[in-house]
């Protein structure tokens, strides 16, 4: 992949550069350091074996939102919110890493720091846009007042656009280019999107919230990418609270697994509008139509802003997509924060990871998007083990042996022998998968399910994280069976003071047609990403085992239902560690 003039040698040069950058100073946060010194931090929490092996993260300190991902001159670029001085939020700068393949990463110099009046008190999230001549441009939110998070939008250009690594960025003197007008909450006005162009006019979105608590995406238009004017009405709004990190992009209406540039339009194109909910801390999206003349977006499902389809029903926030012109795909990045305490984070010296980049496209039904880990992650697969046609009777479990499973990729297809024993779905829980999973967790025997995987399990099963399906008869008495997918980490660790919520989503599939359903899980020491039914439902969980670490981690298939389950095929690979920012 990439330009022929850039081979292995630049990788080595960049790696040496990264190893130097990795020795940056670490500022002590006195209050948290003092607290950490008095709190008994479990040894396993600070065990390096809980740092992820193949997920994106820097060698140390705090990270959050993904920013301005792009492909440029043979390199994938990834910027992100980073605290160079500690493992808690603060002192935010734009860190910058590059990759040939989205999996092996090398850190470069910090891309942007507070340096001009319009970002003196914060360089917050933003996006990249590729201009018609191929030049990348970054739009980002700056904070320009010391006493209040007064937010304005700024622009930055590469100092040398012939540099494929884009190591230096310049902020023109005419910043800021967008400021909040009267009637806009200036403290809730941020995260400009990638811009798109039609009829010589650029558009972009900025997230905000009205005085009545409605999340809004404001449209701004420009002919010169310098002077911007707000469209009178928002692109869309909903009673959700603040919309952070909005994202609008086109997808082929026929469900082809290809991506489209942000400026593509036409009768065979649908649109996805995603927003990150500041109040709920999750991302949701709708599929709909976008009228460029009226600058209005309309969800196909009139209740979509209430039903709230999610990219991921677990720990996944502030996501950002970009179009990859090389492989003609749209790639999704998302941030996963920690589920332990801030004191624990200070003790271990790091906090936050990025999910494995995902390819995203429209399901042929048109009702939702599908997601799948980028194909490049499969290059990390090592030794494998396969199980075929294995019957798992009610109450049984079977261990998968032959590989190390603390850092693994598992693909499994299940077949249900009968749906006659499926439990009726409680109408009170029919619209709330997370509550349903909390009531009907992995330890609660069911009719059809729970069945699935126990990952990061200890030898005696004192610790285990359950990833499972459970099938219900529909609450209305007619229609296809209801399939629940759940991540249950309530038994994931013997450590105290951990946030261990059950995460769940319904899977839009008709299991009655053939009784089959698939699951893929990327297991990586302290994170598990799972993809149900080919990427229809996705769940990321953070877990911190105290026993099931390294070689002591086990993998099981289990069935806690009353119906026989067959593992049609299971293949598990241990995963090698890629280059990861010098860590």
Summarize the structure in words.
By secondary structure, the protein is mostly beta strands. It is built from five helices and 37 strands. The strands form seven sheets. Strands 26, 28, 29, 30, 31, 32 and 36 form a seven-stranded mixed beta sheet that branches. Strands 9, 10, 11, 12, 13 and 14 form a six-stranded antiparallel beta sheet that branches. It has a six-stranded antiparallel beta sheet with strand order 25-37-27-33-34-35, with no helix packed on it. Strand 11 and strand 12 (215-222) form a beta hairpin. The longest helix is centred in the first third of the chain and has 14 residues, at 8-21. The protein starts with 7 loop residues before the first helix and ends in an 8-residue tail after the last strand.
